[in-house]
Amino acid sequence: MSLSERKKRILKAVVEDYIGSAEPVSSKALQGRLDLSVSSATIRNEMNELEQMGLLEQPHTSAGRRPTASGYRIYVNELMGSGDVTQDEAEAIHEKIRKGDEPSNAVSDASKLASQITALPSYAMQAMPGVVTAQRFELVYIDDHTFIIVVLLSNKSVQNRLVTLPTVTKPALLTKLSALFNASFTGKPEGDMTTELIAATERAAGDVTGVTAVIAGFVMEILMRTQVRHTVVSGTSNLLEHPEFQDVEKARRVLGYLSNEQELLRLPAPEADGVKIFIGAENVAEALRDASVVVAKYDAGDNMQGIIGVVGPTRMDYAKVAARLSYIAGGLAKVLAMGVPIGEISGGEDE
User: Fold this and answer.
1) pLDDT of 97-121, one tens digit each?
2) Residue after which a domain boundary falls, among 227, 257, 291
3) Is the separation of the CB atoms in 118 and 108 below 8 Å?
């Protein structure tokens, strides 16, 4: 989307004013702030055009404008400057990470610190970088109500579960399901095990008792669990301090999402080391459609990758949040991956 320089300056000013005040921004307020040598009416016309382009919205007829998710995206991609980490914040980060004698403590403390310095809920985890998949399934019949699921994973580990169901499960159904799972579920990451695939497997097996869903649920659970070794969520109550989440239903959806470990594992992550920002509907989860996620990824050593992120309103100071997460991630990487003595931590890229 092509914007004139004046429109860019106006959009940037609206975003930054709205981030600071949480109040819609008027053309008159912008005229006093921007040195554009144009009238309030001209600025208002430009804001009208930005609204028509889907970058601003007017919550009430007599109100000013506020950014949309698309407006925030252009701001983040094109207009946002780099954030700074203050000396006090840098020292707090160093001190907090120094206290972690074990990697798990360092990750936990970093999550708490990220929440403290951003005033947002934060999460941290460590995960294996490679994708673990199922290589072979065996379903072992015990009796008409009991069977064992055995799954050989690509990391050469074996997972099993004893299943007892109130409905009758005959050996013929287990034999058919074993063949179908070996044909359709092996070599697939957890994210490819869709409801459509599960439903198609049920139909192919003639399963009307829900056995297919039980087996699929188990394999999806173990694939997610084998990826992540340590997960921490901190500062969830911080969400309620932001006016956007005075709406109880909005707050309930996000807090419910953060309290569900299985959902938490689905939070987005950058494809490489660095910081990634997901705004509004860019988050796949319905519960996060009114929120933004800022997340940093780093090398955690021992063939592990670390992730630290925050969840908050789309009205977020993205530059500051991204700078702080980058700094924390940089400190953790040096402690956990590079073997630098803890007292010699110098922070991340945004020093």
Assistant:
1) 766 555 556 678 778 889 988 999 9
2) 227
3) no
